[in-house]
Amino acid sequence: MKRALSLSLLALLLAGCAAEKGIVDKGAYELDARRQAQAAYPRIKVLVIHYTADDFDSSLATLTDKNVSSHYLIPAIPPLHQGKPRIWQLVPENALAWHAGVSFWRGATRINDTSIGIELENRGWQNSGGQKRFAPFEPAQIAALIPLAKDIIQRYDIKPQNVVAHADIAPQRKDDPGPLFPWQTLALQGIGAWPDAARVAFYLNGKPPSQPADTPTLLDLLSRYGYNVPENISSAQQKRVIMAFQMHFRPQRWDGVADNETQAIAEALLEKYGQG
Q1: How far apart are CA 53 and CA 85, in angstroms?
Q2: Euclidean distance between CA atoms 246 and 153, whole angstroms
Q3: Which residue out of 20, 119, 121, 267 is catalytically annotated?
Q4: Which of 126, 134, 218, 245 is the most exposed place for a label (fewest CB within 10 A)?
Q5: pLDDT at 18
Q6: What pLDDT does residue 130 have?
Q7: Helix locations, the chain, DSSP H
Q8: Which of helix, strand or coil describes residue 11?
């Protein structure tokens, strides 16, 4: 009788421990999660925006094939279901998607490992008279993107400077989402970085905006902000980096040429968000 009572008390004690906050019963074993390490960091740090350069059906087929993938795909005009736009989730957020490819941002490579990718159905650019002509984004598509991006940013505490274009993290290979993507509109919604106009004017300091600036100085600023600017970069590659930055932050002119306004924007961004 005494032995049975002791066993019952022991069982109750163990049950109480298992029910204790931070003790997780896994069936064949228990996990004690009451002491958490300080040197732990979230895996998701970056949100990357893309365009598909194709129609929706072709994009969906490509992104569900074996070679590339993305966490989300948003149609140009999302279908409404009970008044809500439908977005396709192709990869769970806790899984790695192959959307960034060879990439670099703020000192880190392998951006696929630390990012969530959102693809927007958009035909990208067409060659017209030797110039790239980009397709605009549908307002309904941007309206669907905004709450999704906000949710992702809130879940993972993604910093504004880490909401980036595919072109930002791979400027030698990519142009997307291009100069018609409404980065400033998104920044007003708390999505991504944007320079303060007053600080751009401060750094411009009355200089003509389109006057050429020192290219090495600008590239140093862009490198400090987060872009990949290796020491042996060619003049053509330099132009691609500057162009990617301009498409994001000065989309009115993205010729890849260093000028006073581009440099002032880079200085204002570094002041606001710090170095990468």
Answers
A1: 21
A2: 24
A3: 119
A4: 126
A5: 44
A6: 84
A7: 2-19, 56-63, 139-156, 166-169, 183-188, 197-204, 215-225, 235-249, 260-273
A8: helix
pLDDT for 174 equals 97
Structure confidence at residue 177 (pLDDT): 98
Task: Specify whether 231 is catalytic.
Answer: no
Model pTM? 0.88
Domain ranges of the chain: 46-188, 197-273
CA distance linking residue 198 with residue 177, whole number of Å = 27
Residues in the chain predicted with pLDDT less than 50, given as ranges, are: 1-2, 5, 7-14, 16-18
Q: Contact 120/47 with Cβ under 8 angstroms?
A: no
At 178, is the secondary structure helix, strand, or coil? coil
CATH topology of domain 197-273: Muramoyl-pentapeptide Carboxypeptidase; domain 1 (1.10.101)
Contacting residues for 150 by C-beta, under 8 A, at least 6 apart: 189, 190, 191
Helices (H) and strands (E) in the chain, counts: 9, 13
pLDDT at residue 123 in the model: 97
Kindly tell me the burial class for residue 62, based on how many C-beta atoms sit within 10 Å of its own C-beta (0-12, 13-18, 19 or more). Answer: middle
Distance between CA atoms of 91 and 70, rounded to whole angstroms? 6
pLDDT of residue 19: 58
Whether 221 contacts 270, CB under 8 Å: yes
Cα 71 to Cα 48, 189, 251: the distances in Å are 10, 22, 27
The tokens describing 49, both together, are 């925006």
Asked whether the domain spanning 197-273 has the same topology as the one spanning 46-188, the reply is: no
What CATH class does 46-188 carry? Answer: alpha beta
What gap in Å lies between CA 191 and CA 187, rounded to an integer? Answer: 5
> CB–CB of 141/74 below 8 Å?
yes
Residue (of 242, 246, 251, 249) closest to 269 by Cα position? 249
